[in-house]
Amino acid sequence: MAKKQKPSRTCVGCHTVRPQNELVRFVRTSKGTVVEDPTSRFRGRGAYVCSETKERCLVLAIKKRAFERALPGKVI
């Protein structure tokens, strides 16, 4: 029987592929703001940022407008 592979995601800031449990998830609310989803229970599409270098990757993601591309709708 094959082992179950852990899900991996890509950081929207530095574009590093890591296991999902090493990243922090962000979602866009219905009001258009982007909030952190530490429990990964909010509905909808998520954008992931490295948890180790969170501040650096967040700055890169904002500078590159990565949240606007990764999350549908207008981000405020």
Largest sheet: 3 strands, antiparallel
Count of β-strands: 5
Class based on secondary structure composition and strand pairing = alpha+beta
Mean pLDDT: 91
- Name the helix and strand elements from N-terminus to C-terminus, one letter apiece: EEEEEHH
Instruction: Please indicate the percent range of residues in DSSP E strands (runs of 2 or more).
Output: 25-35%
Count of helices? 2
| Strand arrangement, major sheet | 4-3-5
pLDDT < 50 stretches? none
In short:
With 76 residues, this protein is of the alpha+beta class. 20% of the residues lie in helices and 28% in strands. Strand 1 and strand 2 form a beta hairpin.
List the helices and strands and how they pair.
Layout: E1 8-10, E2 17-19, E3 23-28, E4 34-37, E5 46-50, H1 54-63, H2 66-70
Antiparallel strand pairs: 1-2, 3-4, 3-5
Describe this structure in words.
- This protein is of the alpha+beta class.
- The protein contains two helices and five strands; from the N terminus they run E-E-E-E-E-H-H.
- It has helices spanning 54-63, 66-70; strands at residues 8-10, 17-19, 23-28, 34-37, 46-50.
- The strands form two sheets. The chain has a three-stranded antiparallel beta sheet, covered by helices on one side. Strands 1-2 form a two-stranded antiparallel ribbon.
- Strand 3 and strand 4 (34-37) form a beta hairpin.
- It is globular, with a radius of gyration of 13 Å.
- The model has no long low-confidence stretch (mean pLDDT 91).
Question: Key terms for this structure?
Answer:
alpha+beta; two-stranded antiparallel sheet; 2 helices
